[in-house]
User: Fold this.
Amino acid sequence: MVEQILPLALALPLLGATTIGLGGLWLPILRKQKYLIGGIASMLVFGAFFLFLAAFLSYKEPSYFAFAWDWIALDPLRIPLRYQVDTLSLWMSLIITGIGALIHLYSIGYMAEEEGSWRYFAFLNLFIFAMLTLVLADSLPLLFLGWEGVGACSYFLIGYWFGEEANARAAQKAFIMNRIGDVGLLAGMIWLYAETGTFDIERLKDYMYGGEVAMGVGLLFFLAATGKSAQLPLYTWLPDAMAGPTPVSALIHAATMVTAGVYLMARMDFLYNLTPETLSIVGAIAITTALLGGLVALAQQDIKKVLAYSTVSQLGFMFAAVSAGAYTAAIFHVFTHAFFKALLFLGSGSLIHATGTQDIRKMGGLRKKMPITGWTFWIGTVAIAGIPPLAGFFSKDEISAAVYTRGTTGEATFYVYWLTLVGVAFLTALYMGRLAWVALEGEYRGEGTPHESPPEMTIPLGVLAVGSIAAGWIGLPPLLGESWIREHWLSQSIKELSVPSLSHGTELFLLCISTIVGLVGLGVAWLLYGRKKAAGDTFFSKHLGRFYTLLSQQLQVDMLYERAFVQPYYILADLAKDVIGPWIGRGIPALVAQMLSRLGEILSRLQVGYTPLYLSYMIAGGLLLLLWVLTG
Amino acid sequence: MFVVVLTIVSLSVCGALALIGGALAVTLRDPIYAVLALVKAMLGLAGIYFLLGAEYVGAIQVIVYAGAILVTFLFVVMLVNLSPEDIPPFPRGIALYGNLILAVAWLLLLSTALSAILEIPAPEQVLLHVEPLPYLYGTLPPLGKALFTAYAFPFELLSVTLLIGIVGASLLVQKRPSS
Amino acid sequence: MNNYMGILSAGWLIIGGALVLIAGTFQKVRRRIPELSIAIGGGATLLNGLLAWFYPLPKSGFFGMVWGGGIYSFLAAGVMLAITVGLSFLWRSHREGGYRGWEAFPLTLFIGAALSTLPASNHLLLSVVALETVSLGAYVLTGLSWENRYAPEAAVKYFLLGAVGFAFLLLGISYLYGLTGTLYLHHLWPMRWTAWHGNSLFALAMVLIAIGILFKLSIFPFHWWAPDVYGGATPSSAGLVVALGKLNAAFLAGVFLHYIHIPSDWLMGLASIAAISSLYGNLGALGQTSIQRMLGYSSIAHGSYILLGLVSGPEGRLQAWGYTLVYALTSTLTFGLLSLRAEPMEYKSLRGLGYNQPGYALAVAICLASLSGMPPLIGFFAKYGIFTAAFRAGYWLPSIVALIGALIGYFYYWRPIAWMYQAGEEIPIRMPALALSTGVLVGLGLLPMALWGWLDYLYGLAGLFLPRP
Assistant:
């Protein structure tokens, strides 16, 4: 069943990408049919989603499906175009196509006034295909293909409005930052192949790894993950990536692509389980990233920047879960986060669409003018803040419980991580509360009269809001029941680091902490921003002083990188241009080439163009051949 | 024994005829003489066919090649009205070199052939089955039968070869329209 | 005898070509001749593809004269694909009045009929007839151009030298017939060839045949015609002419090397000749300023890779045939594409193409990169197959030398690409090339492995040749 359905599900978005892309290129008439194009693109992704849903309902055991030919076939290396369906990849596929379909639908309304929207939908469909390839790939090179594919689509879509230089620069930045990470993936892949002689993930699992291999490859893969999933030190591209259309930010830079790093590490669980030291390093980086994202988000005035840093911070949560060896918790958070972050992004898109600005200081009072957007945005806010019984509460609680549990096994640093996570959870509630109160409540401070968005935009908001409320219920903590996703679904393909289970008392304590922290965060936000209209920023700048200014300048990391890496790189490039190029790069090869060319000229001098001479050369050659054969 | 010697002598004479005819056809400056030398070469070949028992092929060789085709050649040569002075001579060096190589090649072939006669393994040694010559070998009925059964496809493909020759010739002689 | 699968493709092409020839006599239909011919050629490709798909096991037919289905139809489909691509480039030049009449189209169809028969032949007479039919057509295609003054000269040179080469081949085959008494390949196959080893008449026959085939493959001491002919040939058909020559020679040589068992030191000698030839061709190509002359020299190099594969056992022969198909297709495509842009084809005329016509330039660049053997492209896989087979067969030294030659090849294949991406003046180009470059990308990047796998499968099913019909 699954094997028959899935090639089709994979083919649908690819079909959409090619037909829309080529159709848009060759048939200019088609470009005007925006609803048709958007409709086709959305229908195809919806189709893929329902196919995956059917596969999900009929799922029994891991299976494979391959296309008729090999992608690479060089003995002894054979890489078939083969896809693997297990609970993990199927779950990711459901998230990708489900959220993706809603965002496609939303995009029809959002991009209605764009001229080149065929380009947009073609790339969006292509992205879905590439992302599915990434998660369903059976071998690492195919995964890498998907990995690069989503990177390329992200590049195209960030730079969708390439007319402005800032957007083009943002796209380039994302692309280059990701290349640094990709080196890690590539190097890790090759190392694994050198060690095991195979690229197949299934077969890699059975291999007995030495400690240094597991650690080295694990760290290389984590480097790849920091690039794609915007962790320190490679996270800076994500806030800039907000230059793209908002639905793109929702789909690629919040819900799906940026979680690829988490997926990769969950997929490679067997490597990380071997070396807990690697996981400690992952944890330190994840926690720092989460904290940094939360702090910076607090001081941003651009609604999308706030959400971007929030994403960075939430991704830090996911990696914290990975570092505790709780890969299911990470994937669970990927799942819930996909709902409420997509909801928040789409809601912000709706707000931006209505007001024409991204500055929250020019918004305000929008809940009354745009009730659906306003209320769903509030639902998203409460969900991400971690208030029960909304989705964010359950996944975040599971993460903090997992990190705490690692602490109880004797790794004291994990207590520190846990404490920081609690702090970040508080920060999350605070900055999201700030965003909601400033943008949605009070008086409208912008220009014009904003109206509610069309139904193709509000319907996805509604669906996502339902998801943001209910998505967490499939992963109840042991105290309240049974975590379906953990016990019955993901455990089939993910093997977690084994840790002792917590006592009910501790668990209750952690639950309470999570709830209280979220509520307190929202409460403080209400105090600072809800009660006293937008007085919070002055409060912070007064009490935090220069640190707050630094935060609002995004810690000046970009400038730091500019000084530390870009400038030396320029110097290196100049060196290459002026010294290495002319002397070593051009000189020696030119010498060799010149010698060879001279030889070639001498040879071609034999070629006089006189037919009888050629004939006698030929016969002479034949004679030599005959003599050789007869004598030798 | 006498017949064998006679056949060998006749074969040699015909072969020499063909060889000399061919050599003359290339070296004679006057085109008409060259064509006539080619007739001689063709007749020599026809003689060899007759001696080998392929009477029909020999007859065709005389009628078609020595007769029809070479007469057409003669017509063409006379129509063009080439005089020997129009044809550039071989450059001396090339001619010398070419002749040398040809002579060596010929000697080598001859010696090979002569030495080979002595060392040919008996047919039974290499062949799985030795088929005797068919009844009426070299005459028209078996030839016709072969052409229209087993060899029908190569035969038809040969007609395509000729067609390509005709079409190609008509292509290559076309002149660019003046417009 | 009642199996007609082997002559289906040839029959289709001959009848189609004849109909086109008749149709061309009507003034009204004449304008549509190119489209009609391309359709017939494409139809033949499809027909052979379907035969290969539905009859993976080859069948002997027509009095045991030809094979049909399976790998033979696959090879014929590859041949017809190259020819159809070649036809479509002829079409462009034809429309612009760059060369002689419409008769070239039915002529090319006839060539296709003969060439798709050649690998499937079970009789040396048929092979020879098919070979000469193809060669004759190639001579004509060489001299089509009105504008290029070298074209007729090249055609005559090709014709004269080709006739001599063919004479050697025929002489050799007649000796073979004299020695064995049969020309049926399935009779030759079970023969006890080792009894002939050391016999000088056998050696003579083999040398004569080798001269004929090495000439057609343009291998070192017999290659002299290649730079002049390919360099002077009509630009829009040059790629096709090269392809025809190589396919011709590779098919026939494969047949000989499979059915006739020759001493292993002779094979080693052939491999060494291939290595020298690779060096010679690649070095010669390096010194050229005209793309077309570069093509001429590089064809010597490609011939040497094919030869290296052919002598490396059954696996090598399969790889060599695959390589030849790939080379035929890519060279037709590359030089057809280049001829759209530049006549005469000088490197300089490519300057700035990458900026004026990015799609077109990309297509050309991909083709050239594939010819040079860049890894993700089909050319790499083809070369890889040949060289691994040669290494496995034990031809270490020749393979390494030939590889060095192939490395030199990178230099001259990438030079046009470098020219294309240098700034130059704006020159409008005559075709919407994006479609083409997309096709080229997909075709040369992804699909070939599928086709390769298919070839491998058919080969495994039938062996390259079955011993008995």
